[in-house]
Design goal:
Helices cover 7% and strands 47% of the residues. It has 169 residues and is mainly β. The chain folds into two domains: 4-88, RimM (Elongation Factor Tu (Ef-tu), domain 3, Beta Barrel), CATH 2.40.30.60; 99-160, PRC-barrel domain (SH3 type barrels, Roll), CATH 2.30.30.
Length: 169
């Protein structure tokens, strides 16, 4: 089974077992909803944990796990990653994609390869993709209709029509 990473545990917060997460998932409010199950991976073993509280704090997601009400219960998890089953994903609408489907795709302008999507930034108005280019500076591509012409997640290929000045060097 292929597990999907949804967050990294950055630190603890306070003394009541709250964890500070760096989310790597889309829809964090659904993924970390109270009552949902996430899996903590340690040495290849995936242990289930039930979310008992969720809130946003600055750029972090703050959660507690059921039965873990003290910092001593959770401190050992700092630096570890949280995962979900692929079956936990919901169907998306047309032209909607999960981050894991976009990250790793190769981006092309016509037949010219630009690079590979390495990260997705949420900006509010639209997502922005970071494109890693070998030997060159990264490029930021807005996920808007005027730029992204087509996405083939099966082939891991994205076709764009860059706006003037979007890609330099």
């Amino acid at each position: 089974m292929e597990w999907l990473e949804v967050a990294k545990i950055a630190n603890t917060h306070g003394l009541k077992g709250e964890l500070k997460l760096l989310a790597s998932t889309d829809f964090p409010e659904q993924r970390f909803k109270v009552g949902n199950e996430v899996f903590l991976e340690s040495n290849g073993i995936y242990t289930p944990f039930m979310i008992s509280s969720y809130r946003k704090h600055k750029q972090f997601i703050m959660v507690t796990f059921k039965g873990m009400q003290h910092i001593n219960d959770v401190e050992k998890y700092k630096g570890l990653k949280l995962y979900v089953h692929p079956e936990a994903l919901q169907e998306l609408g047309e032209h909607e994609f999960y981050y894991h489907e976009i990250i790793g795709c190769t981006v092309f302008d016509g037949e010219d390869e630009i690079g590979v999507v390495s990260e997705i930034l949420e900006t509010g108005a639209n997502d922005v993709w970071t494109i890693k280019r070998p030997g060159k500076k990264d490029v930021l591509i807005p996920y808007i209709e005027q730029v992204v012409a087509s996405i083939d997640v099966e082939a891991k290929r994205i076709q764009i029509t860059p706006l003037p000045g979007l890609i330099e060097g």
